[in-house]
Structure of SCP-2 sterol transfer family protein:
Amino acid sequence: MNINIYYGGRGIIDDPTIYVINKMQEVLEELRVHVERYNLYDGKSNITTLPQTLKEADGIILATTVEWYGIGGYMQQFLDACWLYGDKEAIAGIYMCPVVMSTTYGEREGKLNLATAWEILGGLPCSGICGYIENTVSLEMNEQYGHIIEKKAENMYRTINQKLASFPASNKVMRQKITIPKSINLTPQETEQLSEYVSDDSYVQRQKEDIQELTSMFRGMLDNNGADGEEEYLSEFKKAFVPQPGFEAIYTIIIEEKKAPMWIAVNGTSVECGYGETEKHDVEMSMNRAAMEDIINGRMTFQRAFMSGVMQRMKGDFRILRTLDQAFPFEEKDR
């Protein structure tokens, strides 16, 4: 995991923000995270090139100090550069944790400004830190403050590691709909012809009927091919099964591309599996076809899929999930 820290303060000795990001960096490095730090005041002439450093980052920390009003010129210049020169596709997959400490007033507004700016850029939000600190000594001597900082760093790590989703924000949606409209390059003749078709109610109605007819046809084709899909993965599970004397459990696996969930019933030395609804289960999990293929081919285990966030959802006893890997030790196959 790669996390970049962008510090927008002036770098003075008693800046409380420096203590906070030093503490967060220490915790992240203990979690085997590669942390790269950029002091914007050091390279203020090169701030416009810094958005290029975002491409390899899984997450970033935007840290600044409110000494008078707002997030400061260095941080604002960096955000402007991200808007003008940043790779928006790369930013869309990067989590951002705002850290704003104030020696006067306005830390909450500063944190909100950073979060809002990152969402407008298309990035993903993380829970941040903000607070008023009169002097750095009081921050360093208070163990509870240190505990809060450590927890925030750990939560950021979990958020990135598990790729936690969040509800869409209106400012991000408005940016997609208004700020960057999708352009359609049409000649004047094509534009005129398209406007005529759209204004013709009978033509629009025929198009709707054609779409409905095609939808029904393809749905029928999928239903006809569904019988083969009902046996997919079952033989692999039966072949890989290792008896587990004295152990009984029922697993339900929801595969995104499948209409019905897959169930696996382990009963000591025997196993049954199929597709369909079950009245009860001990563990229910959800994943896509690619994740299931990796597990079947021995490139991943169920436990690792859950820990890495590839498994989208899991309900039940984690110990029973771990036994699933013992009962089905798939051997790695060549790609």
Q: What stands out?
A: The longest helix spans residues 201-224. The two ends are 25 Å apart (CA to CA).
